[in-house]
Design brief:
The complex is a heterodimer. Chain A is of the alpha+beta class. In chain A, 32% of the residues lie in helices and 29% in strands. By secondary structure, chain B is an alpha/beta fold. Chain B has a single domain, classed as STAS domain (Transcription Regulator spoIIAA, 2-Layer Sandwich). Classes of the chains: A alpha+beta, B alpha/beta.
């Protein structure tokens, strides 16, 4: 599908950048004029993916997170959050609601459930010791002023 | 401060504000747990009316406080979550552990 606009950001996997990543997404999406609900959905999904990279990907190491965001034709938003951390051994298990490897840190185990609920599709590519990429897509509704 | 604490009889009111994510909940958790340990309230009221964003880290915060309050025989109630935050709460099934009261907020009730 044709890309109308795209940007890529790389930042250290530190928790303060969870908020930064949401701000980046909000700024990028202004051009697409999403509804308040669509914007909140995408911001929440991105926050979950970036938090996973910070909390789990780089649990015993440090590194960068890459956030790639695209506005595609037909008002589809493509987001990829990538890290070069420890990777996921069992993706299916990791995506089960309430499953967490960090219960002592009060992780609810709902990150992927939130991403799946708020986005149209979520795909995870991961390899132990190589890293993880979470790819999410969401098609925005046509704003009422453009329907005619 | 992302949390303002206030005591009313045996109820501890924690008014949360701003964005609740993995980064910000750590400080909030410490503040609330310190107040619970000092005051032993029978009810914890989490006022979400000033919260502008929350992801599943906020669910972890609520679940943890429900556990702490349960440990001293108390209850937890959530007040006035904005619509999008309520969606995250519903997705988690948190209302099985903590009652969600839509309106009015704790602040409005006390005025």
């Amino acid at each position: 599908m044709k890309t109308i606009n795209s940007m890529k950001f790389t930042f250290p996997a530190i928790s303060v950048n969870e908020q930064t990543s949401r701000a980046i997404v909000s700024a990028f999406l202004v051009q697409a004029d999403p509804t308040i609900e669509e914007l909140a959905d995408i911001r929440t999904a991105v926050s979950e993916a970036v938090t996973n990279a910070v909390v789990h990907g780089y649990r015993n190491s440090s590194g960068n997170v890459e956030l790639c965001i695209k506005l595609l034709a037909s008002r589809e938003i493509y987001i990829r959050v990538k890290d070069k951390g420890c990777g996921i051994n069992d993706i299916k298990k990791a995506m089960e609601p309430l499953y967490t490897t960090a219960p002592q840190e009060e992780r609810a185990g709902l990150g992927f459930a939130v991403m799946q609920s708020f986005m149209d599709s979520v795909h995870v590519r991961s390899k132990p010791d190589s890293g993880t990429a979470v790819i999410m897509r969401k098609k925005l509704k046509t704003p009422p002023c453009r329907t005619s | 401060m992302p949390v303002a604490m206030q005591s009313e009889n045996s109820c501890l009111v924690a008014s949360l504000s701003g964005e609740l994510d993995h980064h910000s909940v750590r400080l909030i958790r410490e503040e609330i747990d310190t107040a619970i340990a000092e005051q032993h309230p029978s009810q914890l009221a989490l006022d979400f009316s000033g919260v502008t964003f929350m992801d599943s880290s906020g669910i972890g915060l609520i679940l943890g406080r429900c556990k702490v309050m349960g440990g001293i025989g108390g209850t937890t109630t959530i007040y006035s979550p904005p619509p999008h935050i309520k969606r995250v709460m519903r997705l988690s099934g948190i209302e099985r552990l903590a009652k969600i009261e839509s309106t009015p907020s704790r602040k409005e009730q006390s005025n």
